[in-house]
Amino acid sequence: MINPLTELMLTAARKAGAEIMQHYKNGVGIERKGDGSPVTIADQNAEDIILEHLASTGIPVLGEESVAAGRIPELGNKFFVVDPLDGTKEFIKQNGEFTVNIALVENGVPIAGVVTAPALNLEFVADEAGAFSVTKAADGADIFLRLQTRSDGPRKVVASRSHGHAALDTLCQELQIEEDISVGSSLKLCLVARGDALLYPRFTPTCEWDIAAGQAILLRAGGVVLKIDGTPLTYGKSDVDFFNPYFVAAADLNIAHKAAQIMQRLVG
User: Fold this and answer.
1) How many Cα neighbours within 13 Å face the side chain of 233?
2) Mean pLDDT per 10-residue interval, the chain, length 268 residues
3) From edge to edge, which strands make up the β-sheet containing 179-183?
4) Coil, helix or strand for 232?
5) H or E element, residue 227
6) Strand 61-63 relative to strand 247-250: parallel, antiparallel, unpaired?
7) In this structure, are strands 78-86 and 61-63 parallel, antiparallel, or unpaired?
8) Cα 78 to Cα 57: distance, rounded to the nearest angstrom
9) What does the alpha-carbon distance between residue 61 and residue 115 come to, in Å, rounded to a whole number?
10) Which of 93, 98, 109, 207 could staple 87 via S-S, CB 3.0–4.6 A?
């Protein structure tokens, strides 16, 4: 169903997730990065596992913990983007809403991605075959269920549980959104890809590793991710330390453009 490289990414994410769950069950030791954000030994161990699995490909890896340690490879036109534990705050709160994210980027665009939420038993993958959620058959074999965005689906917006913004209320009013689903980590993009919500507007900072895998899944499911100026969100932005501008992820281009125009007006 998915190609061998995506299979390797999924295996790496599962191994990293198993390591994370050991720490999740046994207690969390928290440190602080230079910017004050939390990091745990689970983040570091999980990235080591992922790097070990991806090393055989020879493709450069942009990893969150590696960047924090000052290890930034020459990326070129094709590279992996890794967040070994996205949603560290959710991990610390022990609400289960954290993920392992691995994306493959080519010419600035995420073309394949894996997002796993090991505490919730959720897995999402995407490549040229499409976007899928993954479940298990009775014999342990993977079952791939195709994802498709729904522009005529529930008028819901997904937002961050830990990073809200006052402008969200105005956006929801103008787009006649009926419900705000608060959820942590890159699961927000996967919910849009699954057709559970129309859009995910982001009014606060993110880094490339936070959303690359989720963006790959959303794009392959028929969705769109735009900056608030209406142009596509791209990757490899070393000149701004891999930070993303505000963006909107949506079920289709029309919804994305409408939301981006409102967001630009609200936050400039």
Assistant:
1) 34
2) 96 97 76 61 93 98 94 95 90 88 98 97 98 96 97 88 73 92 89 96 94 98 97 96 97 97 91
3) 179-183, 156-160, 199-202, 247-250, 224-227
4) strand
5) strand 224-227
6) unpaired
7) parallel
8) 11
9) 16
10) 98
